[in-house]
Amino acid sequence: MKLNLDLAAGINVITGHGDGFLKINGERHEGSLLVGPKLLDPAWGKPSMEALTADDFAALALLEAGITLIGTGRRQRFPSPSLLRPLIEAQRGFEIMDTAAACRTYNILAAEGRSVIAALIVESVV
Fold it and tell me: Which one of 10, 36, 44, 106 is CB 3.0 to 4.6 Å from 118, fit for a cystine?
């Protein structure tokens, strides 16, 4: 079955993902990024979960999204609680999942009009 996304709603939609890339509204991005319904920041983050710092998570806490999805790359990995402290202290809801699951979840929540951002790690192809 062919599915067509309604991009006329004026929000950012993740239209594809794979090894080393994401597509937002059909535009290819190679590297980790932050996406929200009205936000696209390809400068956010690092190329791997291990490279993330508390400052990266503090930047997420400042965005005041109702829920923050953290896509950890090809597989689900949990950051240390000390890295998550800025989100916890700001009382932000967050979910940790692999990047593919975060992409799917983001699209559903954004289409529902929810206040959501997705911080997505895109691991480079080796």
Answer: 106
Q: Is 68 in contact with 117 (CB distance < 8 Å)? A: yes
7-120 homologous superfamily: MTH938-like (3.40.1230.10)
**pTM attached to this predicted model:** 0.89
Backbone angles phi, psi at 68, to 5 degrees: -115, 120
Which residues does residue 28 pair with via DSSP β-bridges, in sequence order? 23
pLDDT in tens, the chain (126 residues): 334 555 546 899 999 999 899 999 999 999 999 999 999 999 887 888 889 999 999 999 999 899 999 999 999 999 999 999 999 999 999 999 999 999 999 999 999 999 999 999 998 876
Residue ranges per structural domain of the chain = 7-120
82 conformational bin, left if phi > 0, alpha if psi -120 to 50, beta if neither: alpha
